[in-house]
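Subject: sequence -> structure tokens, single chain

Hey, anyone have a minute? Need the predicted structure for the following. Not urgent.
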Amino acid sequence: MRVVLTQLPLSVPVCIAAILVALFFPGTLGNPLFQIFLLSQALLLAACFAVPWHRLPFPSFLVIPLLDMVSITFGREGGQEALTGLSVLVVLPVIWLCASGLYPRIAVTLCFFGPLGVVWGPLFIRGSVTPQDLSRPLLYPILMLGIGISVSVVTMSMVRQQKSLEDKDEALNAAFEASSHHERLLNTVMEALPLGVVAVDGGGNDILMNHRQRSTHRLATPQGITNPNESQLLVFEEDRTTSVPRERRPVRRAVLGEQFTDQLIWIGTGPAQRAFTTSARPMLDDERNFVGSVVVFSDVTDLVNALAAKDDFVASVSHEFRTPLTSILGYLDLVLDDTAKLDPVARGQLKVVRRNAERLLTLVSDLLAVRSGHVIIQPHAVDFAELVRGRVGSAAPRAAQAGVRFSLDIPETLQAHVDSSRISQVLDNLISNAIKYSPDGGDVEVAAWQEDGEVVCRVSDTGMGMTEEEQDQVFAKFFRAGSVHNSTIPGAGLGLPISKAIVEAHGGTITLRSAPGQGTAFTVRVPA
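Reply:
Had a minute. Here:
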């Protein structure tokens, strides 16, 4: 059909020429050359319809414009007495040849020699070949050559553009297929995760959410509200009853660009309430601008319940230990008070028993304090510098035995409003740890000063130090660094959690800085 449509622009003018000749120049119809012209054009059009061009080699259809030029030669010679300008029809096969884009150099060459044959052929047939006769129609093939070159240039440009578009289309299809594959892979991974995952844009709108997170969202949705906002969701603090403020809710924090890990919340109410730890990481564009965030919800209800059961068990056992230990210590004091009946050896042995019983009672008290999570303090005016000097003095014998050298950097007086017994407990824990975790001796520095309305105390050592992973867990109950698990260094992993609870009860903070093999520094800050 493309061959037929390309031939029709020539067939239509030929039909019009035949009609004009029949009406106004009937004698020309009797000219054999003109008859060959009309018959050949009819046969060529019929061939365009009849020949199965799609089954032949692709360039085979170019024989049609070549035969058209031969046919026009007969038409020009046989009809020039009736109609002038029949030779102009050769421009159509010229355009066909050059517009095909096939064999462009050969096509351009034929654009000149084809029309040249149309005007020179009859001259050679008649035998009238003079320089004047040959030069007179020479402008005609040159004009056809110009038209052919122009058409060829335009066609090649269009071919290159088409090729470029096809390449871009192919690349676009490949990119689309790769994007679709990545999207399918992402969706599969998201749905397979045992975590709730939600991605939000910079405006807080959900752009991606897996099925587990949709279930979590339904759990947080209050009854009677089909599309709640963030502040209406049932999200509670660790006590399971206090609603989390809007600005501290995980998704809100993520939208504000915060990065956090393991924020514990409770979602829902009643028996269906579940515990989740949430973490968020921001998404940045190529210019490092915030464009959204990904928030992960991990269901830790079973773990939280197991930890609570463990704490209850420890508290119950500790409470049961306290009464007999108190009784043992009481009777030991009575026995030791009776100096007349005890020889020195027995007295020394009983003191060892009392010392270990007191240590066990202290451990029981620590367990109960950690379990309750509440530390009662009674602040009063204290000379913090004197308090530090007293605790360092008490620890001096143990430091000397361990080969640890103390250094103090404190002012003469440093007034503070704290619970002296509780802060002494914190100082004892920090100084004791500094000595214990310097098994090969070393230096321990205790410094204190006032800064921005706070009293600051730093206890630093040059001992074993801790890794970053150990530092993240150092305030967890019962945690002990891996380097001391198999050592003879005593401890239950409760001193630092208790110290943290005491400092926070004062409205302060406790932080650390450590590196393996370089020592550790704990810094306590409490309001002055």
